[in-house]
Specification:
By secondary structure, the chain is of the alpha+beta class. The strands form 2 sheets. Strands 1, 2, 3, 4, 5, 6, 7, 8, 9, 10 and 11 form an 11-stranded mixed sheet that branches. Strands 12-16-15-14-13-19-18-17 form an 8-stranded mixed sheet. A hairpin with a 6-residue loop joins strand 10 and strand 11. The chain is elongated.
Amino acid sequence: MAEEEDSKALIEDSFHHLWNDAQNNTLWKRVKDQPRDLFKRSYKHKKFGDCLSMKATAIVPASMEEVIAQIKGIDHVEEWDPFFKSGTVLESWNENCDIIHSVYSTHVPAVPDRDFVFIECRKMRDDGAYMSVVTSVERSNIPVGSNTIRAKLAPSGFILFPTADAMKTSITYMLQVNIKGSIPVWLKQKLMMEIPQAIDRIGSSIRNKILKGMAVSLQTVIRERQARDSVAMLKKMASKRKFVAEEILQSERNYFKSLNIADTMFRVPLISSQPAIIPPDAVDAIFSNLQSIIILHHRILIQLEERIGQMWKFHQELGIVLLKAAQDLRIYSEYINNYDKAMASLQKNLDSSSVFREFCTQRKQNPACNLYGLNDLLIMPIQRLPRYELFLQDLMKCTDPNSPEYIITAKALDTMKNTNTFVNDKKREADSMSRMMTVQRKVRSRQNVKLDLLAPDRILLKEGFIHELVPGSKPIERYIFLFNDCLMVSKQTEVRKRIIDMTVQYSDAKTSPLTAFCMIEDLTFSKDKNVPREDMDLSFRLILDEGEKPIIFKCPDSKVKNGWMNDFNSTIRALKEKL
């Protein structure tokens, strides 16, 4: 029991040392006889005595799951380690921790084999990296064989990182071993140079399994990595990344400050003033959910300050901040959808209240407002979300593509794009619904019956004037509405001019489902005798199902005609694909 507790403490310490030693490049130097490669070694004094140490890094053409299956335990070691002779699992504490006894051959008759008793543990880190660490442990019940020497392992093992390509994995393999006893120098060198080749063997073994024994030449990216990791390039990338990070932080500070100005210098005084400068519902309409946005950005700013302002590192995780915030940023849809109403309410109260006008003027002149007027402050959230997308694009350009941070930043950028798309779609839907509600109040069918346009999932895509060509009649001016599922043809007339919102009405309206449309025909080269020759270049025909009369439209110019034809074609195609 005491041995088990000691081993648990040892393995936690080993995870820590393996990670730090692998990441700290100052501990390593290049192999002299392979100057073009990135395989590095050094000799260091460690807890287990003088250790012969070697570290290799490469990318193999295999997924992380495939690599993990290949390096886990002892089942496949002989496929990638030519010195492995035999191995036995002595104890299994859980699915991620085993005590193992292994024998390794020197392949030299005069040099005894080495055996090891070690604990192997595996874990997945929060940043997506996978670690498999081995460290020698003492086991009194496993005696040393007569023809072997008991060697010892300092913290050694694998660190795997995902890459942008799911079928490629970055592998760092580190071996720190006290070989014990005498061994020829040339054999030590051969042992060490097998470490980088082991990574190639892991990838080759996986590939051979996938291709069922077919010989595949695996190309490495070691030279490309050597070029990327050159000192000059790293310095340039680090400098650029720091600059971008500081720009993100400063932008967030300025933005958060502006949000607070809008809240503390305008919203709060308007709410608390007695008597009220403007009605409370007007304050709510103007500022919408600004307070929720302030709370969100307070959290984002704190996280950025922790990562940039207090302790900066080249591979500091910045993308994770915006990745976590991206879903929450969807609250902007409420603010953006309400923005037009907010501006209308603001202008209405400025026009009707001299007290409110004076309040806004005095606040703008207050030094605490930095000469920002209320209009200037309220438009800032409208402009904010696209900036995060640009920041993340700049950040990716100066982040090592093989680092975990690159994967996180790429995911954050993708999530941010989805958030922007979501907010924009919600804005379009809100605008479309508002417009449809307006049209709904003003439309009458050809039988003077009110049409129901507010169907579920219906979106207004386009509207405008156009002429309908009817055989035997003059062109009839129409006002048409193209929805995502139907077309409404109407006639716009002006009525009740004293009420601004009701100056127009849409009468003689008829709707046709887009599923009934068979084809959009350009009449430029048509021989249809029902269409005057001078109108053909500007006309197109909507061909409906059998039994329905086609509809012929004439546009004012070819640009408008092409626009309508493209919109009809794309909308009908999208609807049919959906069905």
